[in-house]
Design goal:
Layout: E1 12-14, E2 28-32, E3 35-39, E4 65-68, E5 72-80, E6 84-89, E7 99-105, E8 111-116, E9 119-121, E10 124-128, E11 143-149, E12 158-162, E13 170-174, E14 186-191, E15 202-205, E16 210-213, E17 219-223, E18 229-231, E19 236-238, E20 244-246, E21 251-254, E22 257-260, H1 273-279, H2 300-308, E23 311-312, E24 315-316, E25 321-327, E26 333-345, E27 348-357, E28 360-366, E29 371-373, E30 377-379, E31 383-385, E32 391-393, E33 408-409, H3 412-421, E34 425-430, E35 437-438, E36 449-454, E37 468-471, E38 489-491, E39 497-498, E40 501-503, E41 508-515, E42 520-528
Parallel strand pairs: 33-34, 34-36, 35-37, 38-42
Antiparallel strand pairs: 1-2, 2-3, 4-12, 5-6, 5-11, 6-10, 7-8, 7-11, 9-10, 12-13, 13-14, 14-15, 16-17, 17-18, 18-19, 19-20, 20-21, 21-22, 23-24, 25-26, 26-27, 27-28, 28-29, 30-31, 31-32, 36-41, 37-40, 38-39, 41-42
């Protein structure tokens, strides 16, 4: 026993294991909001008790269960005809058409019915007698409760509190009650009998969320319906597939395991003793004796970096050589090399950026700005160039001038062979000879331009050259303003027939094929320049 003399209490004094509330235990004297509060089970006053204000709170109880729904009442009058029961209740009418009504009592015998309201008429509930087949009939004094509605989704929810059903008290929140059963309607349960948990107690929620915020509205933790969530104000988070991270991906995990991001520091001093011991390998042989004034542990590449480091604003920046990649079992590298003299090509050390696959350079940008790309290029599946140089453009267009190399043809057979293999855009050098040049025929030349240049690269003296005749294999009469579709001709810009076009020495004649998708009508002379 302890004896206290004059004692000042600043805060509270209480019994061991004190629990506040109507169902609590123990006692406490505490200062709350500037007022002293005594909480105790019983109070015995042997003398006079002076009370300036007396507030009595009564605890109400419901035996069994309590349903909170959109309507309930106690029947005060029942009448009937051949088809329906007409029911009046003591309280204000809160039932509507298509409400599902349930009555279930066990005092003075069991009574139960579960029916659907047909309509509300003259402040009476109208229920067809057919609804009561197999059930008891309504009577004065019955307590009826609405549980759901067959059509109105706003009246298909309920809260059900029960304390003695199987010895597992619980609070149920129900949604979607649209017929005379509760199958699949329990969406939230707090207490015992958790669905699918074999009698375990706790919290159950279907497609629900748990969210906690602090006084200023910041989310402290949250569990979403899809299984994703966050904790510690979002510093720990994960998605619906279980992939997650800590502190902005400083540490993150996915199906491939755990990974370290940027900003992670692992130091020897931070490791526990057993981890340190596990990381220690077998004791190695003594190293070579070091030279005075030189760090024996300095690796060659570190020494090279120290000797060639770059300094900007008093700070050292990146190493002059970097390789990121792997070395295969055959010793060949695959990765990216960056830096000075980082790779050797044809016996010459090169500086720049180099992509390497199995020891072969597949792209590069060197110190001279020269670049090489050995793969394929694809732009949104609209434009592509493969490694063999084939270009594919889907609905594309070119600006500027596009041409093929010139070709030196000394006879018409060589000329026609070249045109047959290259019929997109032509620009060739042709020698002046006595042979004439024959323009090709075929629907594939519709829209094709051909430039014929009268120039001999082996004889640049124009005075010794003669005009170069250009013609077709056969021709015919062309009426002004029209073309005959059965013969291929050479025509001028006025659609008039030209038998032979002579190209003067040093000049170029430009032709374009005219026709449609099936026939080449003619070759039109666009000009001689």
């Amino acid at each position: 026993m302890a004896k206290l003399a004059s004692t000042i209490i600043n805060g509270f004094v209480q019994s061991k294991n004190f629990i506040t509330g109507a169902l609590g235990s123990g006692w406490r004297i505490a200062l709350k909001l500037g007022r002293w509060v005594l909480e105790i089970d019983d109070l015995v006053v042997r003398g006079r008790m002076t009370v300036f204000e007396l507030l009595i709170q009564k605890i109400r109880a419901v035996k069994g269960a309590l349903g909170i729904t959109q309507a309930n009442g106690k029947i005060k009058e029942v009448r009937e005809d051949d088809v329906n029961y007409y029911i009046k209740i003591e309280d204000e009418m809160s039932f509507v058409a298509n409400d599902i009504i349930r009555c279930q009592t066990f005092s003075s015998g069991q009574k139960s019915y579960w029916v659907i309201v047909s309509s509300i008429s003259n402040n009476e509930i109208v229920i067809p007698k057919s609804e009561f087949e197999g059930w008891d009939i309504p009577a004065i004094g019955d307590e009826i409760v609405q549980f759901g509605n067959t059509t109105d989704t706003a009246r298909q929810s309920a809260i059900y509190l029960h304390a003695d059903e199987g010895g597992d008290p619980a609070i149920d929140v129900l949604f979607g009650i649209h017929e005379k059963n509760f199958n699949g309607c329990t969406k939230v349960r707090i207490g015992g009998g958790i669905p699918g948990a074999e009698g375990c107690r706790g919290f159950y929620c279907e497609n629900g969320m748990i969210k906690s915020v602090n006084e200023v509205g910041e989310i402290m933790y949250m569990l979403r319906p899809d299984g994703s969530g966050l904790m510690a104000k979002g510093n720990i988070s994960w998605d619906a597939d279980g992939n997650g991270s800590i502190f902005n991906r400083s540490i993150y995990w996915d199906k491939d395991g755990f990974h370290f991001g940027s900003g992670i520091k692992l130091t020897w001093d931070n490791l526990p003793a057993d981890a340190k011991e596990a990381l220690k390998g077998d004791k190695g042989d003594p190293g070579d004796k070091g030279n005075p004034g030189k760090d024996a542990n300095l690796l060659p590449w570190v020494e090279e970096w120290n000797n060639n480091k770059t300094e900007i604003g008093g700070e050292h920046v990146i190493s002059p050589k970097i390789f990121s990649g792997t070395r295969g079992a055959d010793g060949k590298l695959t990765g990216v090399a960056v830096g000075r003299d980082v790779i050797e090509i044809d016996g010459v050390k090169k500086t720049g950026i180099f992509g390497i696959k199995d020891g072969v350079v597949i792209f590069s940008v060197d110190e001279n700005g020269d670049s090489f790309y050995g793969g394929s290029i694809n732009v949104n599946d609209r434009f592509s160039v493969d490694k063999d140089g084939k270009v594919v453009a889907v609905d594309g267009s070119f600006s500027g001038k596009l041409s093929t190399p010139f070709f030196n043809a000394h006879d018409k057979d060589m000329w026609n062979e070249v045109i047959k293999d290259h019929y997109n855009i032509f620009s060739y050098i042709l020698s002046a000879s006595s042979l004439y040049i024959v323009l090709p025929v075929g629907k594939e030349f519709n829209g094709v331009r051909i430039n014929v240049m009268n120039f001999d690269p082996y004889n640049r003296n124009f005075s010794t050259m003669t005009p170069l005749p250009v013609r077709i294999e056969w021709g015919g009469y062309i009426r002004p303003g029209s073309m005959d579709a059965y013969e291929v001709k050479i025509i001028n810009t006025s659609n008039q027939l030209v038998d032979v076009v002579e190209v003067p020495p040093g000049k170029i004649a430009e032709f374009i094929g005219v026709g449609d998708g099936n026939v080449l009508f003619a070759w039109k002379v666009l000009g001689i320049v």
